[in-house]
What we know:
By secondary structure, the protein is α+β, with helices and mostly antiparallel strands. Helices cover about 30% and strands about 10% of the residues.
Amino acid sequence: MTKTMHTTNYFDTFIQVAEDCPVQTGEEPPPRAGNPTVSGLQYKMIAQAPYKYTSDDVVFATSAQGRQLDAKATKKERSLVRDEFFSKGQACLRASGLGKRFGWGVHADAEGRIAIYAVDSKRYLAIAKDAGIKQVRAMRTRRA
């Protein structure tokens, strides 16, 4: 019996900031108690390599399981841990603090690779108006 594999990937989709996002410009997520937060790790990974990673790559790499793998882990070990991680449903980037709290929209291209854009940038506005790209919102922090 094979396990069902879940994914967080989007294709040709733009995740706009949440309706209740408290900022008017993109902000780098600050560390908490001197340690980077998951949002901070996601920000750094995506900002340093736009359109290199898929949502699954980012979600796994910034998860506790992904961070526990050291550089010496083999491809097979990494693959097994990743398969186990995605055998259960995971929160997608719509639930990330990037779009909920810190003012970043997430664009996924046709191949599912992602980049982030500050809510006050020209590129954010252009992608948000593009009818050829599916538009969704980051999840609200508070109930409506």
